[in-house]
Design a protein that fits this description.
Shape: elongated
Largest sheet: 4 strands, antiparallel
Number of helices: 12
Radius of gyration: 31 Å
């Protein structure tokens, strides 16, 4: 019996290192940078948690959950490529730059006190040291992109004008009207007949221009009506169909009959009316610049990542559910969680 127990103990001791190696084995190596199985599982769990919290249609959530392993490993793969390149270029982020990035992050999330910051770190399962390391890595990746991707993006005025001429429907404004209203309030306590009488009186005075801002302020103080409420520009489809038909067929300056709606009787006035028109190039030039910059950045970034992969020493032993992580390159350089504000495989290009 002692011999059997001793043999079993030896077998267990022999198996223990193998188990430890399996848990911490390297699943991905890019040059001198590695990702362990433990790191991969942690990233995958964070991704699944983020998807479960995200406001997504059920079918889209299931699609992303099904490929969470592939996407997690793909994200890590692209980060390792960029960080390995930053190593080669000798790009480093200073402590001051890291602290500045942390302060910007705190400001963007509305974190004002150290107590709030500590709670946010705890909710994210992060220590301050780990956050600093994340920020340092992000800054180094952005430096690599700024040094080697941004210079390849060149857009001139002719490119912008060609886009404008090829996509006129994107810059065509529909018919629209500018509106404002006064509401005779149900909360005034007046009987319905008196409310209607007051509304009609206000309408008549609005049409002949005799109703002043001061008088409207007096009505507001008495709780009878609001002052002017600016509704701004509206286009077909923005309003209730009955109101829309009325205001789009009215002359500028005209006022609707009293309309029963939430809060009381509404008097809507047309301030301006514009027919459909094509915006000028000057009006949309900055918008086109952003569109084309984003498009070219995505294309150039894809090419850049492929170049880094071709020039790097890469060894991968992915878990079965993530075996096809490199085939996801065809889907483009952006992490699908980027639009949800969770994590971005390819950092935003620096300004």
């Amino acid at each position: 019996m002692r011999a059997v127990a001793l043999t079993a103990g030896i077998c267990w001791l022999a198996a223990a290192p193998a188990l430890a190696v399996e848990v911490n084995r390297i699943v991905l190596r890019v040059n001198n940078r590695i990702l362990t199985l433990h790191d991969y599982e942690k990233r995958k769990a964070e991704r699944i948690s983020a998807l479960q919290r995200a406001d997504l249609p059920a079918d889209r959530r299931q699609e992303l959950l099904a490929r969470a392993g592939e996407d997690a490993l793909r994200a890590a793969y692209e980060e390792l490529l960029l960080l390995a390149r930053a190593d080669q270029l000798g790009l480093e982020a200073t402590d001051a730059e890291v602290e500045s990035a942390i302060e910007q992050t705190k400001a963007s999330f509305g974190i004002q006190t150290e107590a709030d910051f500590e709670r946010a770190l705890a909710q994210s399962n992060l220590t301050l040291a780990a956050l600093r390391e994340q920020m340092r890595s992000n800054l180094r990746m952005q430096m690599a992109i700024g040094a080697e991707v941004r210079p390849r993006i060149d857009i001139d005025d002719e490119d912008l004008r060609r886009y404008y001429q090829a996509h006129p429907d994107e810059f065509r404004l529909p018919e629209r009207v500018e509106l404002r209203e006064v509401v005779v309030l149900d909360s005034s306590g007046l009987p319905a007949a008196e409310l209607e009488e007051l509304a009609n009186d206000l309408r008549s005075r609005l049409l002949d221009g005799s109703l002043t801002e001061e008088e409207l302020a007096d009505y507001r103080e008495q709780g009878l009506a609001t002052e002017w409420i600016q509704l701004g520009w509206v286009q077909p489809g923005d309003l209730d169909p009955a109101l829309e038909e009325a205001v789009f067929n009215m002359e500028v300056g005209a006022v609707t009959e009293p309309l029963t709606a939430r809060g009381g009787l509404h008097l809507v006035q047309v301030l301006d009316h514009k027919e459909p028109e094509l915006m000028s190039f000057a009006e949309v030039e900055e918008q086109i610049q952003r569109i084309e910059s984003d498009r070219l950045f995505a294309e150039v970034m894809q090419e850049y990542m492929e170049e880094l992969a071709a020039e790097s020493y890469i060894v991968s032993r992915p878990p079965p559910e993530a075996a096809n992580f490199r085939t996801l390159e065809k889907r483009g350089p952006r992490d699908p969680l980027a639009k949800l504000g969770v994590r971005e495989t390819t950092p935003t290009p620096p300004e």
